[in-house]
Write a structure and sequence with these properties.
The chain is of the alpha+beta class. The protein is built from 9 helices and 12 strands. A hairpin with a 2-residue loop joins strand 4 (148-150) and strand 5 (153-159). Helix 1 (2-40) packs antiparallel against helix 4, helix 3 packs across helix 4 (161-212) and helix 6 packs parallel to helix 9 (440-450). The longest helix is centred in the middle third of the chain and has 58 residues, at 228-285. The chain is rod-shaped, with a radius of gyration of 54 Å.
Length: 486
Amino acid sequence: MSLVAVLLTAVGALGLALYGHELNNEIVMAAINAREFSDRAPQENFYLAAYEFENRYGHEGVHMFADIPRAPRLRLGQTGPPYRRAAGALPNGGPPPAGRPAGPPPTETAVIDGVVRTGPGILRTRFEGSRFGFAIATLFGVRGSPPTPFFNGVISFNPDPNLFQNIVLGILGGVVLASILVGALAYSIGRYITEQAIQPLVDVTEALQRFAARDFRPQSITTARKSDFDVLAHAYNAASEQVASAFAEREAAEAQMRQFVADAGHELRTPLTIVLGYIDLLRRRVSPADERSKFIFSSIASEGRRMRTLVDNLVLLARLEGEDTRLFEPFDVGELVREIVNVRQGLAPNVRFEVDHQVAAVAIADRSEVYEALANIVDNAIKYAPGSPIRVETAVPQSGTVEIAVADDGPGIAPEDRESIFERFFRGVSRGEVEGSGLGLAIAKRAVERAGGTLRLDTTVPHGTRFVIALRAERSATPDRAAVRA
């Protein structure tokens, strides 16, 4: 912007110099014209001639001053309009009258730019005007003409200092305004060019932020291959393709593993069932007195049932992690809770269940998978909180959501285990001698997620354990509070 200001100032100075040169020529021509005009009519009235000369040859920017040195008293008649005193001017720009004056004679009289002015010290007004304008005119070589004989007086021509000042101020204002406009334009163009140049870097940054948010979908960045930033974007595109390929391979491997687990589970179910049947048959045929054989067969049967449970869970988990092609349907949450509680009450008659329905809600999900999730959470509470009452609560905390909470007063989950409790085969350090496969909560979480809901561990309870399932609700109805105890 400073360069633009310097260039504009130089152009303005050049224009002002050309104008000064032209003005010098006009002053010289005005002096020549004044001598010629005076020679053509030597007997004409001085003031009338000065007025007529200004009207005929006057030029903007040239200041004319005509006076009669030691002028005698003017005799002004009463036929013309009166002249003005003390820096006055004739009305309507008319010529000065001649004849006997109407009042006391003025001490000094002059014609300034075609206007007759009288009064003491009027001859000094030839140097009136802006000093700054005089200085600028002198700087650019503009000089006034020496007094030129004109009839019975003299006439001189000088540059108008006020006009010079206005021109310089206009140039300075134009330079400032143009500098601001050019600066704004240069800033806009520079910003646009910069944004275009660093756009690949911005795109790469946004893509890496998506990666940090665990969004690994490949999104190629278009580049023009004209800068180092484009090379960076090209490198990111290559890395993104590799990541996408790695994830595709991982998904394919996981799909194969799920298929293998499902196939293996189906293949193991039949021989396990047969083995458990033969073990049960052999145990029945053992002599009542043979305690050792009875213990061996009971242990084999127990381990066989545990293995069958593990196979069933693996098959169920593989099915839940497969492609989701189900259609969600509304179902009564309260009815589902009562069904699970009634079944567990029959299997564990010593456990006390407390069911609390604040509202009768209808959820939209796959009922069988929500059943699996809730049943696994209730089974965990039965195993890991023996002797504690198990509370199952249903609530609608906000519009469009229904929550099912399962809580107990057991030992709870250690803080270091809370982040891993939903992982496969994970069993906490506080599990004790409780049997299990570590798949129950993993199955529950996956089943709830397939239903479009969430499963979380409530860490705000002071003691015990509390899991909360949140599902999409269809509607809520009137309160329905109940308690089931066993």
